[in-house]
Amino acid sequence: MKSLLKLSAVLLLAVLFVMGCSSGDGNESNGTSNDGNEQSNADGEAKTIILGHPNAETHPMHQSYMQFKELVEEKTNGQIVVEVHHGGTLGGDRELAESVDTGTIQMALNGSMILGNYDPKFRIFDLPFIFDSYEEVDKIIEGSIGKQLSDVIEGTNIRVLSFPEAGFRDITTGKKEIKTAEDLEGIKIRALETPVHIAGFEALGMSPTSIPFPEVYSSLQSGVIDAQENSNSNTYHSKFYEVQSYLTTPGIFFLLDMTIINEDFYQSLTEEQQQIITESAIEAAKFQRELNREEEDKMREFIADEGVVVNELSDTELGKLKEKSKPVYDQFHSEIGEDFAKAVSEELGRDLFE
Q: Are strands 107-111 and 47-52 parallel, antiparallel or unpaired?
């Protein structure tokens, strides 16, 4: 009996020893009992960028932000993860800018129409017929003006990283065909949330209403508005042709977009990560502009294939619209600022406010 008790005691000690060793190995492998492992896990935790934009998943803008995501995640070895939210699921343009400013999200697509609320300089790009060609757009983006604007907007937590574009904006209408400048009078049209576009449409005798992009389709469908103006990519990918009958080209406005980032988040990154984010945003924006320009005429043809009648304004009618738009330049000249207005005019090689 004593021998049996001794044997039992030895076996119990052996089991306890094995369990103790097993427990020690487990703690080291999952890091719960090792200060070094805990520190390593904390240092290796990936930062997440939530990026919002209002465009459809098939739109070149979304494709470019997926490229941005790929570039950032690859170049940071997964230290920064990018979540791209399309289709206005995080809000319209104004909500996206506010969310970046407050840090609710880290990045977003935005544009001069909203950023002009934070700095009136941006309003110059909302003026009717501001650009004559894509070559002029590139002069601004790639020149001294683009460099000047690629910074933190004073008094905000918003930094501009790069310049994608929505492009030249043709007008679509549901009931009335537009062939002359006078045909625009009285039309209820959706306007971007900028006083410059409101003033521009009113100068042409139109009746503008600011509506967030995600609500445009339903507003056209219900008759709240008769018309909208957009890039042909937006018009096609958002299927506005389903609720519109006519398209008029060229349009009145160009929309210069910006990729923006929350400044506090940007400053929380290492210098190397900041460089990766900035360079990737610039590369993605260039890719988007190329896609947008390649698609412009093609999308207009696709829209026509859906049954929309396309009308091109004559030089005479276009001249009438430009003449009617001149007072808008005078209205916003002082708000934009004489120095910036002069700098943009010099960059374009013509006096915008003559």
A: parallel
- Cα distance between residue 169 and residue 229, in whole Å: 6
Residue 169: which of 235, 93, 71 has the closest Cα?
235
| Residues 90/106, Cβ–Cβ less than 8 Å | no
> What was the pLDDT predicted at 8?
43
Q: φ and ψ at 198, to 5 degrees?
A: -60, -50
For 80, the token pair is 């920064």
- Give the largest CA-CA distance in the chain: 118
Could you tell me which residues come within 8 angstroms of residue 70 by beta carbon, excluding any fewer than 6 positions away?
none
DSSP at 308:
P
Give Cα 180 distance to the centre of its chain.
33
Contact yes or no for 27/80 (Cβ under 8 A)? no
Q: What is the pLDDT of residue 41?
A: 32
Q: Where are the alpha helices (DSSP H) in the chain?
A: 2-30, 35-43, 60-75, 93-102, 112-115, 134-142, 144-149, 195-203, 216-222, 232-237, 263-267, 271-305, 315-336, 338-348
- Report helix, strand or coil for 334: helix
C-alpha–C-alpha distance, residues 255 and 184, integer Å: 20
- Whole-angstrom Cα distance, residue 174 to residue 179? 14
- How confident is the chain (354 residues) per 10-residue block, as mean pLDDT? 40 38 35 32 76 94 98 98 97 96 98 96 97 96 96 98 96 97 97 96 97 94 97 94 98 97 98 98 97 92 97 97 97 97 96 90
